[in-house]
Amino acid sequence: MKLAFVTSLLPVQDPVTGFDLANRVIVDAIRERGVDLKLIGYSSPGAEVAYSDDAIVLGEQDITNARASAAQKARWLLQAVANNTTVSSAKMLACGRGKIEEALAAAGPVDGLILNSVQLPAAYPDIFGRYKSIFIAHNVEWLSAFQNSAHAATRMERQLYRRESSILKRLEDELCRQARFVWTLSEEDRHSLVAADASRSAFLPLVTRFDPPDAPAADRKVEYDLGMIGSWSWQSNRIGLDWFLDEVTPKLPQTVSIAIAGQIGQPAPDAEHPGLRLLGRVPDARDFVRSCAVIALASRAGTGVQLKTIETFEMGLPAVATSSALRGIADTPSNVVAADTADAFAQAVAEQVEASRKGGFKTLDGREFHADQRRRLGEAIDVGLKRLDSNE
Question: Pfam families recorded for this chain (predicted)?
Fold first, then answer.
């Protein structure tokens, strides 16, 4: 089978962001099934494209809002309004229709397309709609945008999120209806889309990398009782961080040391706790996570899957997690406590930290979790590819 993987950003050699990690693992899983896979999309500045011999680059784009100037954001918004599309899909219009047609021709005759997330496929729906396809919904984008609107800082921001949500609902519904099969990254998302029919949809349990994780170190050096790490400029992540700082942190014992890694941005948090440390960007995310006795997974919004949750479980670390943070997890490890209210979360953290100090909470071997997730991922990939190859 020969397919073209159509994506806003091409998979990279050394993925860092959640989107890049998911892309690389999904592409690896498809290629493992023996599929001849061509890749079509934009490259990220400074990033080395994975499988470059099979990649067809539409151009280079930095599409991150946090790094864009006010003028660039305004241009994206104007283009979105002019084309009755979302800001994220407006960014994809830079290459032009001709470049898309050239890329598909360069890929050669294919048996179908894998449309990776909504951004690029929704920018050129009439072109990609000529092919049978599998649609990968990394998130339920319309729902994420709607949730973000409820937490918007200004009226204008709230209106923009609601505009995005309305358009995204239409675009995602169309992509799901046109696709032969739909992959989501969590079971919850599968039921939030129009493709909830089990015969033509499945969720992909992810890992953060294809190779198994290392065995747990016997002498893990702990520097902090509790740790959090994330891309806090993303609104859905920031909602969880603010909830943790505003509602959970005041309920924690004053003796607990709390480290938060990742650039937070504005508005700066005003939480007060004697053990709180805002570290900003850290040199190595995994080293930081290993240095924390317990990990707080405090997602409160968003859809899709939390890659930091998966990474924590692959490393076998004790954690306290909200149900939102456990999206896409088939089996929760035994050293993870689920809690959704601030009181329950704070109590679980205090108990986990106390147990850790006494040596009661041991690190698990995350290789078992990784192997189970990867096996389930392969099974879901097989089901989708079989449906795409059928005449149904």
Answer: Glyco_trans_1_4
357 and 305 within one domain? yes
pLDDT tens, residue by residue, 46-94: 889 999 999 999 999 877 766 767 787 788 888 888 888 988 898 989 8
**211 is a domain residue:** no
Enclosing domain of residue 236: 224-365
Convert the chain into a string of H (helix), E (strand) and C (coil).
Answer: CEEEEEEEECCECCCCCHHHHHHHHHHHHHHHCCCEEEEEEEECCCCCECCHHHEEEEEECCCCHHHCCHHHHHHHHHHHHHCCCCHHHHHHHHHCHHHHHHHHHHHCCCCEEEEECCHHHHHCHHHHCCCCEEEEECCCHHHHHHHHHHCCCCHHHHHHHHHHHHHHHHHHHHHHHHCCEEEECCHHHHHHCCCCCHHHEEECCCCCCCCCCCCCCCCCCCCEEEEEECCCCCHHHHHHHHHHHHHHHHHCCCCCCEEEECCCCCCCCCCCCCCEEEEECCCCHHHHHHCEEEEEECCCCCCCCCHHHHHHHHCCCCEEECCHHHCCCCCCCCCEEECCCHHHHHHHHHHHHHHHHCCCCCCCCCHHHHHHHHHHHHHHHHHHHHHHHCCC
Express each pLDDT in 210-244 by its tens digit.
888 888 877 778 899 999 998 888 778 888 999 99
pLDDT of amino acid 263: 84
Where is average pLDDT lowest: 316-330, 334-348, 373-387?
A: 316-330
Q: What is the pTM of this model?
A: 0.86
- 140 plus 259 within the same structural domain: no
Whether 238 and 122 share a structural domain: no
* Mean residue pLDDT across the chain: 89
